[in-house]
Every structure is written in C-alpha cells, then in structure tokens.
Amino acid sequence: MNTRTIGKLTVSEIGMGCMGFSHGYGAVPPEAYSIDAIRAAYDYGCTFFDTAETYGREQFYPGHNEELVGKALKDIRKNIVLATKLHITTEEYIPSEPVYNILRSHLDASLKRLQTDYIDLYYWHRVNEDIPLQDVAAAMGRLIREGLIRGWGLSQVPVQTLRIAQDITPLTAVQNLYSMVERDCEDELIPYCQEQHIGLVAFSPIASGLLSGKVTADTKFTGDDVRKFVPQLSQENIKGNQPIVDLLAGWAKRKNCTSAQICLAWMLKKYPHVIPIPGSKNKERILENLKASEVVLTDAEFAELQQGLDACQVYGHRGIDESQQRSFSRNWRKE
What we know:
Layout lengths: L2 E4 L2 E4 L3 E2 L13 H14 L3 E3 L13 H10 L7 E6 L12 H16 L6 E4 L8 H13 L6 E4 L3 H8 L6 E5 L11 H8 L2 E5 L31 H6 L1 H14 L3 H12 L3 E3 L6 H8 L8 H12 L17 H6 L2
Parallel strand pairs: 3-4, 4-5, 5-6, 6-7, 7-8, 8-9, 9-10
Antiparallel strand pairs: 1-2
C-alpha cells in the first residue's frame, strides 16, 4: 500500500479504526476473530491503527479496545503507527495542579494496555471546555520531548481551535468527521492543515455505512450502535440521500469495485495529506476498504464524480465542532 506523511510519521494511506471490536456497532465478534482481523489488515499493508481509552462501554469496559489492539499488534509494534486518545473529565482537573500529571496518568495506563513504551500519535479525544487547551498543548509538548509520544492531535475541532494549539505545540494530526456527505473540513480546516503540514485523519469516511449502499431505510440499529444517532441515517434522511448512494453505485459498476471503495478512492485523490480510517468489525469489509488503495480515479473521472456529488443535496448534518460539552457521543450515552 502507498504511504503518506503526517508530521514526522509515515503511515499507510488508509488506516484502520478499531472501535467496532469493542463497542459502537452492536454485538462484537469474539476476541480471536478480532485479533485475526487486525493482523489480516496488517498483512495486507495497513500500518496505521486507531483506538482510544474509552472504547469498550456497555458489554465491556473502558480500555478494552486498547487491550485488544495491544494483543494483536505487540509482535509487530515497531512496524506500525499506533494512535490512541485520552478523555479528561472535569472532575479530575484541579486548576492548581499541572495538567501534565493528568495526561501522564492516562498515558501510562494506555501504554500498559497497549503493551508498548511509546505512542506514535496521542489525541485529546474531544476538547473539554473546562480545561485550558493551552495547558494541554504544553503538556503534550513535554510528553513529546520525553519520548513517550511521537506526536499529538485533536479531534472534532474547527480551524480556530487548531490555531491555538498549533502555536504552542505543533500538531501531527487532527481526527475529524469527513466524508462525501460531511465536508465541513474542506472550507477552512483542510487548507490550514495543508499549510501547516498537519494530517487530516478522516473518521467515518463511508458515512457509517450509508455510502456503501448497505444501509437502507429499513435497517434497524440496536444496543449500543451509535448509528441510531447519525443524522444521515434517520429513515427520512436515508431516503433523501439516495441519489448520492445511486451515484456511487453507478461509479462502482463502472470501475468494477464497491461503492465504499469509490468513497475512499475519491478522498485519496482529492487531498494528499488526508488519511481515511474506516472502521468495521467484519474482516471481509476491513480488507475491502483497504483494497480501495487499488482503485485509481483519473483526473477526468474525479472531476466527473465531483460534479455529480456537487449536484446532490445532502440530508442530515453533524459537523466537526464538538467538545465534551457539545458532543455527539453524549447523545448516545444517554440511551
């Protein structure tokens, strides 16, 4: 697989979101299956794996996904780029004490679960508005200098937030929602990231399955499945977005691939510093997504596809400006 550079890190041009093995998409597969799927992704050529300390609610426990990823990748740790995220609660923040102590405590726990002595990319998993961003950015800089992390990032933030953090400790990446039906990043954030050499790690690049054509108005989401709350996946909006799904199906037939692969190929063609990290708990789907790297759009094909997308109205919008106080995830935790 081709590689891309974000900050000082070299990663496969398509990464792998591992959350679904622990929660978020209904019933999870057995541990042995999950580990085999992660290793199959590596065998194909994926070197960029994404997890978080909070992945593992409901059926399991926070930290479950990190433990699973650690088991799967410990023998090939030096060959891969590992990203995880921390979540800081307001209750654990004491203004009179260094924020670094909080980060170090979370990081030490993640290192143990992941069976490693460093993290390549460490994100703040949604900004907590009760905690100064400047203090977190400075603490991340100290962790980099100490060799405990190689780079840091933020998630679901607008360009204004990036600028504040970038002035204190240069960012490696921002992990934001980005897909054919969620394109807020294109307005200001992507140009800024290109200028500052910050990678955009795109989560949900297939719009939680909508753009694959496999989700219909009759699809039922149960349990802890976060798709119950994805705006584009309400019955009304699925119907409204059908012209986009049909457009992709036509392109998939034309290019002898899948609709999901067209989505990822479009993203790779459009920006050189964007790395999609589709997530799935299904080994077949994981390998299908990675094989999008084999789908090549010519300049003329890309322009035609882009024109077709621009002619379609998008129904349902989530956006990228989310904090712990204003978060999509808060909605589904109340369920």
